[in-house]
């Protein structure tokens, strides 16, 4: 897989997430369904597995992702929120990461979302997004006004694009050739009001 492939949905890298630390508010997770919880150190390997099993990263391209993930969990990227969904057996079946956009007004970005391939279409992605949205709504408009997500225009992300439309996001913008020749960035947008 080409290095540019690493960026889909994880649309900004560790540098941008470092910049996100400039935003000061830290909403706590609230109203979580029982099977969703904030990620902990022990979730690093399962979350990496979700990214790899879904073909979002080649093993050689994992370095930036790992840095962001570990930085979030050790508190050094303290505005970044990682949550995981557990299945009935207690395994990590899905994960999401969201953080404030550093140069925007209370706009949050869903930087990462993945569900184990064996459990696609069982509602886990919907539950993760609902949880992220609920936590931001609970934090209030002074913290979060808008949630965006960025993905690729390629066929590999067709399911993701359908999913975001189904989740009530507007297909807001297209940045041509962003990820490479023939691979545009598609930005989805949703009001949190
Ligand atoms: C995109 C993803 C997170 C969706 O999670 P999920 O748990 O499978 O989705 P849900 O079961 O909550 O699906 C909700 C709705 O989204 C739509 N949807 C989800 N997957 C779809 C697919 N493969 N094809 C068409 N529609 C789909 C459907 O309308 C679905 O409702 P339905 O099953 O009642 O028809 C998951 O497919 C995934 O991990 N994909 C690989 C990684 C990825 O692309 N992540 C996003 C990067 S931006």
Largest sheet: 7 strands, mixed
How big is the Rg? 15 Å
For this structure, what is the CATH homologous superfamily?
A: Gcn5-related N-acetyltransferase (GNAT)
> Given the C-alpha coordinates, what overall shape results?
globular
CATH architecture annotation name:
3-Layer(aba) Sandwich
**Could you say how many structural domains there are in total?**
1
| Average pLDDT over all residues | 84
Tally of strands: 7
Helix content: 25-40%
Listed once per kind, the bound small molecules are:
coenzyme A
Regions with little confidence, pLDDT below 50 for 5+ residues: 1-7, 11-34
- Which fold name corresponds to the CATH topology? Aminopeptidase
**H-E order:** HEHHEEEHEHEE
Structure description:
The chain has 193 residues and is α+β, with helices and mostly antiparallel strands. It has 5 helices and 7 strands; from the N terminus they run H-E-H-H-E-E-E-H-E-H-E-E. It has a single domain, classed as Gcn5-related N-acetyltransferase (GNAT) (Aminopeptidase, 3-Layer(aba) Sandwich). Helix 4 links the parallel strand 4 and strand 5. The longest helix has 16 residues. The chain binds coenzyme A. The site of coenzyme A has 21 residues, from strand 4, helix 4 and helix 5.
